[in-house]
Amino acid sequence: MENINEWLLPDLETSTIIIISVMLIFSCLIIITRIADLRTFAKMTSFDFATTIAIGSILASVAMDTTISIGNGLVTLAAIVIFQVIFAVLQRKSNLFRKAATNGPILIMKDEKILEEALKKSNLHRSELIAKLREANVLQFDDVRAVVIESTGDVSVLHVNDGDKKLQDEILDFKY
């Protein structure tokens, strides 16, 4: 029965170390992201998303594994954020790098027509598209100007709200 108690009940020393670790590493993360930039958690690209997951994993590891020092966690966090900043600068300065490193958006619906080949390419099922249309308050297909799967995997639904407004070409220009 003693083993179950050790397994279920936290001991005071370990709990104190975990609480202090969380407070310190989380505070350091806030400072690092304030110094680096706002993009750190923006999920602008799949790389940003991966960075967010990696940061969460590091925070959890430092908090739960008392053998990992706060210093090692801090160095790892800083390295990931610095790498992300370098990656973002390279994307901004080089079209070739941006095209090689990120997924481009995919137009999956134009006006009221579902582009079946684009659905296949994006591994999206028609029922998933319909669910996204419902989330965007689309009542009928002719309410849709365009549906785009963004480079982050998010689905953007552009509505036909104002018949007088023409869709700006740049909005659907995927050659960046």
Automatic annotation (TrEMBL):
UniProt topology in membrane: Multi-pass membrane protein
Lineage: Bacteria, Pseudomonadati, Bacteroidota, Flavobacteriia, Flavobacteriales
Start and end residues of each YetF C-terminal domain: 93-165
Name of the molecule in the record: DUF421 domain-containing protein
Family, per entry: Belongs to the UPF0702 family.
Subcellular location, record wording: Cell membrane
Keywords (A to Z) from UniProt: Cell membrane, Membrane, Transmembrane, Transmembrane helix
GO cellular component: plasma membrane
